[in-house]
Amino acid sequence: MAKTKPTINVAFVGHVDHGKSTTIGRLMFDSGAIPQQELDKLKVIAKEHGKAGFEFAYIMDKFKEERERGVTIDLSYQKLITNKYEVTIIDAPGHKDFIKNMITGASQSDAAFLTVAAAEGVQPQTKEHAWLLRTMGVKQLAVLVNKMDTVDWKEDAYKKVVADVSVILKQAGYKVETMAFIPAAGYLGDNVVKKSDKMPWYKGPTIREQLDLFELPNKPTDLPLRMPLQDVYEITGIGTVPVGKIETGIMKIGQKVIILPGRSGVGIAGEVKTIEMHHEQMNQAESGDNVGINIRGVGKKDIARGDVVCDAAKPASIVQEFIAQVAIISHPTVIAKGYTPVFHIHTAQVPCQFVELIEKQSPDGTKATNPDFLKNGDVAKVKIRPVGNLVLETQAANPHMSRFAIRDAGATVAAGVCLEITAKKN
Fold it and tell me: pLDDT tens across 314-334, in order?
């Protein structure tokens, strides 16, 4: 079956329990993507787990542990066909332990809905997610003011959330004037697919309509092939199947590739044997596509999540050190030379050391060269050395492979982008 509509990846992010999974479940169901009997089955399971009312969330929360705890742990994907797009919906966890998966989700998205519950309003994670989305290059954002039923559908409550969220989004560098703020009730289905009759004061789009209002990003098909691996499966009859999203370039059957860094640290050469997307065999796939592939000459023990499939003729670099611009979002004290947190770059997680603080600009606009430390709000140019093998590119060469988030002790400390690279010599 030929793909007729362009694919767009949309993430739902936001604080835990603000109703992301339920809203997506309702969206899938009201759009006809989930049959009634499937929902009825989930209703029964929800009751058995003492979670009546969680049936929509269960559409996304497939894992047993998630059902019992009622939280989203890993990324879940669903496909929804709208008038304009084939939408891959990514349900990104709100729970702070799982934010590394949320970072991966955000880095794969073309657009996102930031979900904020009307009664609770802005939470610490709302702020963190806004910064992450921005750093991960998600330019298009809509805000979902969810659970409007808990505030009696009042416009004042909605306006307060809009005002509070706007402050945070502006700080993160978003233009809020053009952004949709959608008041909804995910569980009840108000303004999800069907327009709500309970909020006559709201004239904007429903969630479903907003999906078609997002613009298709320019596909970076002119850049060399880069596909960071999300997972590596062993499938009977096929063999090793690496799965991930093609960030840039085009992948074709028969193409010569090199997977970097690989277990060896110097890369593994291979040839693309098969490409599969949504259980269909393709002759080629391009940036934006989530695919599973089989590569001749590459086994499960050779590669892992975080490796990058590159065009063999134009591979990326494994870096010795790099210069980056970083924004410090939330560190409990200060960051000095020698600090070695974990960097989340595309799907990789690698400890990296701050070896030099080159310059910084403070929130009040003052600048300093070779500062002794960095604190929250500072934007700095720093030299970083990975402890281990890391594939990275500069913003100028490939912006899709240049962004990262920095995490430490379960929180996102900073986010940044790579400006210059010193490649490793083999």
Answer: 999 999 999 998 878 778 899
For residue 60, the model assigns a pLDDT of: 53
d(CA 232, CA 229): 7
Q: How far is CA 280 from CA 6, 219, 277, 290, 293, in A?
A: 16, 21, 5, 12, 11
Residue in the block written with tokens 């974990």: 342
* Residue range 255-301, pLDDT digits in tens: 999 999 998 888 999 999 999 987 789 999 998 888 999 999 898 89
Which residues, 6 or more positions from 28, have their beta carbon under 8 angstroms from its beta carbon?
34, 59, 78, 80, 89
Element (H, E) at 230: strand 226-235
234 & 365 share domain: no
- Is 418 within a domain? yes
Name the nearest CA neighbour of 78 among 92, 91, 65, 66.
91
Query: Using an 8 Å Cβ cutoff, are 127 and 168 in contact?
Result: yes
Ranges in the chain, pLDDT < 50: 1-2, 61-77, 93-106
Residues 305, 334, single domain; the answer is: no
Residue where a domain stops, chosen among 260, 289, 311:
311
Pairing label, strands 403-408, 373-374: unpaired
- The answer to whether residue 1 is domain-embedded is no
Estimate the crossing angle of helix 124-135 against helix 155-171, to 10 degrees.
50
Residue 249 shares a structural domain with residue 171: no
Classify burial at 313, counting beta carbons within 10 Å of its beta carbon; exposed 0-12, middle 13-18, buried 19 or more. exposed
- DSSP assignment of 188-210: TTBTTTBPPSS-TT--S--HHHH
pLDDT of residue 374: 94
List own/partner pairs for 156-161 with CB under 8 A and 24 or more apart. 157/118, 157/119, 158/118, 158/183, 158/199, 158/202, 160/121, 161/116, 161/118, 161/121, 161/122
Domain that holds residue 302: 226-311
According to the model, what pLDDT value does residue 278 have? 76
Give the whole-angstrom CA distance, residue 144 versus residue 148: 10
In the chain, how many domains are there? 3
Round to whole Å and give the CA distance between 143 and 98: 21
Is 94 within 8 Å of 13 (Cβ atoms)? yes
CA dist., res. 344 & res. 191, Å (int): 35
